[in-house]
Amino acid sequence: MRYAIIESGFVANIAVSQSPLASNWIPAANAKIGYRWDGSVFAPVLPSLEQAKVDKSIELAAKSEEVSTEDLTVDGVTFTTDNESVADMTTALSVMGRNPTESIDFKGANGWTNANKAALENMQNAVWVRRKAANANYKAHDDAITLLTTPQEVIDYDINTGWPE
What residue segments make up the domains of the chain, in order of their start? Predict the structure, then answer.
């Protein structure tokens, strides 16, 4: 059986034993190290408001990065939109600006294609639209998190709404 070892009202450790070995060994149920024990119920200890906001901001930044760099499909070509791929598109467009009849073999997520300037511009525009929408949603969530007043509100705040498809 799992036992929570209680010290000063908190779970200091979790042990597995056939029976408690001391009076501060309590059947653990769902308890984890760091939980508070009030004598009858285990409860997680909430972080400070500031720490909860930092944790949520890290989660939000990761979500924004994920959405901003998802694959896109334009004119039947699916392509990655990470920063390196977008930089490659920008470089190709810069060179093509000097010679608009050029094209480049471009490896999309689903295979090779030959992309001319117009195709690359369409791809870059799609990335811009996606990233602009993702940044607007990131800012809206960030602003909303700033206004929250309790750690539990921050923990419960859903960052998964409003992202571009």
Answer: 2-43, 49-156
